[in-house]
Amino acid sequence: MMKFNFKKSILKIPFFLILLFSIIIYSCRKGNKEPARLPAPLNDAKSWYESVYPANSGNSLQNQAAGKSRDLSQWIKPDWQHPVMYNRYGQSVIEMPVDPEAKFGSSYQLNKKRCNPAYSRSYYLLMTDGKKREAYILTIIADSAYINNDLSKLDHNTYRKHDPDFSGTILYFTPRGSYLGGYGYRNGQLMASGTEDTDTNKTPRVQNVNTGRLIANTVKQVCTDWYVVYYVDGVYQCDEYLTTTCVNVDDGNPSGSGGNTPPPPPPCPPGMHVGPPVTPPCIPLAVESVEGGNRLKTNYVPPPPPPGDGGMPPPTAQVCSVDPPRQPCPSAPDPCELLKKAKQKFATAFNTQRNADVLAKPGTNEYGSNLNLTSLSANTYMNTPITTNGTNSWMPNFTWNSTNGFSIGSVHRHQSAGPSPNDVFSLIDHLSNPDLVTSGASSIKFYRDNAYATIVSNTTTYTVTVSNWAILSQMFLDYNQDRNGYEEAFQNKATEYKNKMNLDEASATNKALMEIFSGAINLYKSPSNSTNYVITDIDKNGKLTITTCPDK
Amino acid sequence: MKKSLIILLLSTTGAFTCKAQLIHRTEDVKLTLPNGTYKLSKQQVDALPGMKLSSKLNQSYYLPYNYKIGDIYIGLFNVNKDSINNNLPEKKSSHDERYIFLRSNGNNSYNSEIKRMGKNWVLLISYTINNIGKYKFDYQNESKTLTQAGEIDYPENQKEKATALLNEILNSIQFIE
Questions:
Q1: Residue A30: inside a domain
Q2: CATH of span B23-175
Q3: Which of A104, A145, A540, B70 is most buried per CB count within 10 Å?
Q4: What are the sequence ranges of the domains in chain B?
Q5: What band does A499 get if pLDDT is binned at 50, 70 and 90?
Q6: Residues of A at the B interface (Cβ-Cβ below 8 Å)?
Q7: pTM value?
Q8: In degrees to the nearest 10, what's the CA dihedral of A48, A53, A58, A64?
């Protein structure tokens, strides 16, 4: 039986007191709201975020000037203690709720109707591909019918996933509050985008599309002004105009998306569009403009393809731009003078040698070479390599810098066919090259004035230059809708000419090309290894024409 | 009496069969199109999806003779006589080059081959674009003087039916020399 030793127990008491005291002190220190140490990737992201979006005291939301995007980074911040990290679209994503300290809420307002902010959740998304970081705010606003008095359903929808029956709108903003674009969902399906209203007249407009013999069919266009609305603790603070969308309503029934959920707003404000500016075609002299009047813009913007992994579509750093106004067309320049000037760039001794070298490559694969000026002031070319893409089409490697040269042209080989639409559109595709874009207006003008694409075949050398960038820009939009379909249509046309008119391959493809591009491009051709170029075009009867200039 | 009945029955059946099959005939060729095929007017051809070219082209791509059976379109050119394009291997390589854009854009459906059909030859091109399957053929006589070109467009999920149709058409081509 164990004996209780009172003296020994008394000696142990101070030890227990010290231990107890230490535990209390340690507990107090731990409870001193010191944030837990963050894992390394999160810590890096936080450092980056706080350097790019530093919080400046005294610049609260209410103090910011109205009429501009509210700088949300001065009001809210990510809740770094509740991150969810995953990979999506090849990017590492850190998804975090908004720090609850700000008691932040946001929703949207359609015309004068405000949506319930309780049906909305906002998330910070920090994404990196390992090289570059981006931050976005994703606001998910659910429809009341979808919520159906169960607010917990809001938690089912994030960037990574959404309920199969989710109905509502998602909006992307930058941390500084700039609107990047939105998407609409109905029953889990992405909706078509709302049509952007480009008319400054904001009153509802009416167009009589058809007055049939039996029933007068009236189509109205109903427009909605979109605002983002901000709340603190559920109390309205301010709102901000985003854009206006319009839908056609036929005899009181929406012809477009219809239903409770409105179509999502496009990312750009009225009068602007996503992507680089598109130069409209010039106004031909003595031809009445088809524009103007009370025309309605009813372009249908199809819904984007669903991401396929159950999540939301990703944000994009949209660049909105305004198109320049239409200008009267200049009087037609002398085509022979144009050829003479263009030949100074595409018919140099270097070009002739490079064309021959490309043509001499073995096999039947497409070979090609970029033709890069050493500088914009010189007429000498860099010794760029001749490359191939195997059994695929040759692809130019456009550069616009003093190290690699300034790619004003290219040459590649075909076996027997002339240039195709793809060859022509590569000229305009380069206009979006970041190096060229950032090099300024004079560089872009230089490129436009001198760009060319040369195609060499066993018998003929073709060179394409652009005669009207505005027309080609419009055609490029058409081409980008369905590149394969466009190319196939061209090939079908060439086949038709071969079979119906007994034209050879080169003539059939030239005729098909100029039938499509006449007025937008110049097509010059010469025998192989020669610079005796002639001008190829098509006359008003659809016949191929050849113009030989006096000094060729 | 019995004989007369049999003759009557056979001639009725023959007449019915003849009426059901459509014969495509020009001064250079005769071929039989399957039951249910009907001829399309220019307006009907224009209305076919995918037949309109880019908005810059104000006319449709259409062949001189256009037929349809169910959802399948059949187009025939006039017979080419002594065409400068009568070299099938050359034609094949030019097609192979012109349709490189499909592979470059990630579409690997393109295929081409030259096949012997009895004494004659056929260049057969096939690919799928925007969910429409395409057969393009150049059927040539032995002496390379006559070529019947045509195409068959079909919904992607009707490949088997379209292939049977193609074989039926190719096997029925008779040049009138």
A1: no
A2: 3.40.1000
A3: A104
A4: 23-175
A5: confident
A6: 364, 366, 389, 391-393, 395, 414-417, 420, 422, 475, 478-479, 482-496, 498-500, 502, 504-505, 509, 515-517
A7: 0.55
A8: -170
